Amino acid sequence: MAVDFSYANATISNGFTDILSEHMKAVGRIFYLHSPQDTMFERKEDVPNFFRQSWPYFLIFMILEHIVLRLEGKNGIRLNDGITSISHGIFQECGRLIWRGAESYLYTWIYSNFRLVELPWNHTVTWYAAALGVDFCYYWMHRACHEVHILWAQHQVHHTSEDFNMGIGIRQSVLQGWGGFIFYLPLALAIPPAQFVMHHQFSYLYMFWIHTETIKSLGPLEYILNTPSHHRVHHGSNKYCLDVNYGGVLIIWDRMFGTFRPETDKIEIVYGLIYNQPSFNPLHLQSFYTAYVIKRFQSMTTTGNKLKALFWGPSWQPGSPRLGNEEDKIDVQFREKFDVHLPAWCNIYLILHYSVVLYGFFELSAKYMGMTPISVLIFVFYIIASLTVIGMLFDNSKHSSLLEVLRCSALAFLARSVAVTNPGLGTMLQIFYVVSAMFWCLNILKLLEIKKTKVE
To answer: 177, 202, 296, 298: least buried by Cβ within 10 Å?
Structure first.
């Protein structure tokens, strides 16, 4: 029995060690700390979705950051703004679920037919060459997203928050991947697709944690790496923050190509767009600027100016240089942050419903490959519609109550399908949504109203 007991203890100990090791590796990926030997894959289909696997760690880091900010006497991550950032990340992931990796098809086709060299997929040199190549191409893609108007229409989503925290790291556009993939195609002449897909994920994982005000400086690493200090400048709407610090993992590209600017304690950075949008509605924030670019395109009278309205910089005006006149750019120095202070019960309601949507998203991301495309589209529509209505409720929009009644009524009906396989859960969801719909009906009838809380 003693031998069996020792063996059992050893098994438990080894199991715990293995689990701890996996968690440490997952955290390490966020900081681009990888073992090349553990992250080499022959086919791109074999590359795990490291980004999606990291979502639990994103949420944990955001909670820790909030605690640190509060201990420093700051406000921390605002509920409405933080949830809006997560919603944008879910929007982006839902897009990826729909097109199922189609963004990398052209890369794979070029590599299969036109590659110039045959780099071994399982060699350390290939791993580092891919890391360097992806980061170099990211610099130019990111720079183009700020200098090409139609690309900025997608990338601006990432800059819509007036706060700067780790949640901003997952505030991304649904369509930016399609607009930016062309900048990575030269790598297909040499870098195997699996290496490209993997390091592309690693690059975005790294950029999650540099969105924070809790880390002031990394000392000598500031000369080589993109850090929170450098990235704070990039996200500012002050004039000295515009069009600088485009690097992903490395800041050396900005130093080489003249787009580097260090942080200064003489100017308080104002985050967000120059003309910020007062909303927590993720669908609006994803689409409003594209509508503006189309309107601007239509307003131009000549073909040349129409094309420039699409491909020249956001500040371009007829008769000005490609990126606009420097003296015409606005220097934002201070502004009140947009905020809507809802009562505590309303925030609790929104958190509960958001948690259900988040659970549905993780269920979809785990099972979508075994679902029909139509089923995936329906599920994605439910998620996007729910996140949009929740965002409108955070805005206290005049249409949000009616939309919430419709959403909850539809979901109460659809919950009947859950009851077929899981009667307990289905009944609970039906009650949850029916009660929610009834409440917002009373709100519409003015029998119950949301009164904004006052903030001194």
So the answer is: 298
Q: State the pLDDT at residue 1.
A: 47
Token pair in block for residue 76? 């921390």
Q: Which band of pLDDT confidence, cut at 50, 70 and 90, is reported for residue 418?
A: low
**Distance separating alpha carbons of residues 334 and 371, to the nearest angstrom:** 49
Contact 190, 154 (CB under 8 A): no
Give all strands (DSSP E) within 108-205, no chain letters. Answer: none
User: How many other CB atoms sit within 10 Å of the CB of residue 76?
Assistant: 18
**CB burial readout 56-67, b (16+ within 10 A) else e:** ebbbebbeebbe
Taking 70 as the threshold, does the pLDDT of residue 311 lie above it?
A: yes
pLDDT for 10 equals 58
Instruction: Calculate the alpha carbon distances from 401 to 286, 357, 396, 439 in Å.
Output: 22, 18, 9, 9
Q: Do residues 101 and 299 make contact, with C-beta atoms less than 8 angstroms apart?
A: no
Q: What is the share, in percent, of the chain residues with pLDDT greater than 90? A: 73
Q: Which phi and psi angles does 18 have, rounded to 5°?
A: -65, -45
Distance CA 33, CA 228 (A): 17
Is residue 247 pLDDT above 90, yes or no? Answer: yes
Reference 286, options 82, 100, 84, 146; nearest CA is 84
- Residue pair 289/153 in contact by the 8 Å Cβ criterion: yes
**272-291, pLDDT tens digit by residue?**
999 999 999 999 999 999 99
For residue 159, which of 304, 68, 59, 272 has the smallest C-alpha distance? 272
pTM of the model: 0.92
Pick from 171, 178, 30, 151: which is nearest to 95 by CA?
178
CA angle 308, 314, 320 (to 5 degrees): 60
Q: Provide Rg for the chain, Cα atoms.
A: 24
User: In three state form, how does the secondary structure of 59-71 look?
Assistant: HHHHHHHHHHHHH
Q: How many CB atoms lie within 10 A of CB 378?
A: 13
| In the block, residue with structure tokens 């505030």 | 171
DSSP-derived letter for residue 43 is: S
Task: State the pLDDT confidence band at 227, using cuts at 50, 70 and 90.
Answer: very high
What mean pLDDT value characterizes the chain? 91
Residue 401 pLDDT = 92
Write out the two tokens for 385. Answer: 């519609």
* pLDDT for residue 455 is more than 50: no
Query: Tokens for 45?
Result: 């289909």
**Residues 206/31, Cβ–Cβ less than 8 Å:** yes
Residue 250's SS3 state is strand
Q: At what angle do helices 193-209 and 105-114 cross, to 10 degrees?
A: 140
| Angle formed at CA 414 by CA 412 and CA 415, multiple of 5 degrees | 65
